[in-house]
Write a structure and sequence with these properties.
Blueprint lengths: L1 H9 L6 H12 L5 H14 L3 H14 L12 E2 L13 H11 L4 E5 L9 H7 L8 H11 L1 E5 H4 L4 H10 L4 H8 L7 E5 L6 H10 L4 E7 L12 E7 L2 E7 L1 H4 L14 H12 L8 H16 L6 H13 L2 H12 L5 H9 L2
Parallel strand pairs: 1-4, 2-3, 4-5
Antiparallel strand pairs: 5-6, 6-7
Helix pairs in contact: 1-3, 2-4, 3-9, 4-10, 4-11, 5-14, 5-16, 6-13, 14-15
Length: about 350
């Protein structure tokens, strides 16, 4: 059966939704061999995945994951992006998640170790002291009690172990880079989703619409980053009230200074952990480039969460959340609630006291 799907895709044919679902079920169930998965993913990448194929794959991934249903007021947001940006920035969307949570918008952050960058969200949060391997039930409670939780993909998506080896060995971006953010185990109804390629921006907004997402911004910095950018223009597809509208915004229009790529470059997990600490703890000034890119991405999340109706007010509110200590408090409380190691933050507090 799976060979038929490979043959079809190799010949350039799109898979109808039903067949795409069956193909993903075979992969998730462990019925496809590593060679078959490699051939299928490579052929899909060369053909180009359709909106319906991506929707079908995401539905299957959602069915196979451990789901949680945190009881929260209002919207539940995720800031998980695709990764794979060309500039290897620090963990901007992870930093933004704490600023958003600090403004009292519940966050269900989904993430993993790095595949393409020096430091994935899981790598940097572990470096900050977070305990990653906690049960889905524990994460659900933490989101309810603390307003933010981290869902470590391998814990929630056990069936993904069937593709891990293939993805590593073929070493190219595949549809799975896109599927991670589309398979949030808490079924977050609001998403800030950065993507590595401008060709994904509008299609993924339509994918999220078909998956029942309430509101989302799909962002791509046209200089090659999967975030709202401060080094050049950003393409945004905004899904709201069932409609998808696209816009291109410059740093000037967003209300921030234009930065240089080296200003927002990332380091290893230890270096990035220190950057996140310095942003959330207000060590950097408000117009420092790393601070500004974290703030503008948080502002997008604050708009989606209903706390701001434009980037200007979103930026103001994001700054307040740093200044009043709420963003840093969210990080500290999350680490404590996970049974993690607070000594790493305490060392940084002493260093920057």
């Amino acid at each position: 059966m799976f060979k038929e799907f490979i043959k079809k895709v190799v010949e350039g044919f799109d898979l109808p939704s039903e067949e795409a679902e069956k193909a993903m079920e075979e992969i998730m169930n462990g019925n496809a061999t590593q060679s078959q998965i490699g051939a299928f993913l490579t052929a899909l990448r060369m053909k180009g995945e359709t909106i319906d194929e991506i929707v079908a794959f995401a539905k299957v991934m959602r069915r196979f994951c451990y789901k949680i249903k945190p009881r929260v007021d209002g919207k539940l947001i995720d800031t998980c992006g695709t990764g794979g940006d060309k500039l290897k920035t620090f963990n901007i969307s992870t930093t933004a998640a704490f600023i958003i949570a600090g403004a009292n918008i519940p966050v269900a952050k989904h993430g993993n170790r790095s595949v393409t960058s020096k430091s994935g969200s899981a790598d940097v949060l572990e470096e900050l002291g977070l305990r990653l391997n906690i049960t889905p039930k524990e994460v659900e409670k933490i989101i309810e009690n603390e307003g933010i939780g981290f869902m470590f993909a391998p814990v929630f998506h056990e069936a993904m172990k069937n593709v891990a080896q293939t993805r590593k060995e073929i070493g190219i971006r595949t549809v799975f880079n896109v599927l991670g953010p589309l398979a949030n185990p808490a079924e977050a109804n609001t998403q800030l989703l950065g993507v590595y390629d401008k060709s994904l921006v509008k299609p993924l907004a339509h994918v999220l619409k078909k998956l029942g997402c309430q509101e989302a911004m799909i962002t791509h910095g046209l200089d090659g980053i999967d975030e709202v950018s401060t080094i050049g223009k950003t393409l945004i597809a905004w899904l709201k009230n069932g409609e998808v509208n696209t816009m291109i915004l410059s740093p000037k229009k967003l209300g921030v200074k234009k930065a240089k790529p080296e200003d927002i470059a990332g380091l290893d997990p230890k270096g990035n952990a220190e950057i996140i600490f310095k942003i959330l703890n207000g060590v950097y000034s408000m117009n420092e480039p790393k601070m500004e890119i974290a703030l503008i991405n948080a502002a997008a999340g604050l708009i989606l969460g209903g706390k701001a109706d434009n980037f200007s007010y979103g930026l103001e509110l994001a700054r307040e959340t740093i200044e009043n200590g709420c963003a840093y408090k969210k990080l500290k409380r999350l680490i404590k609630a996970s049974g993690g190691d607070l000594s790493k933050l305490e060392e940084l507090e002493l260093k920057y006291a």
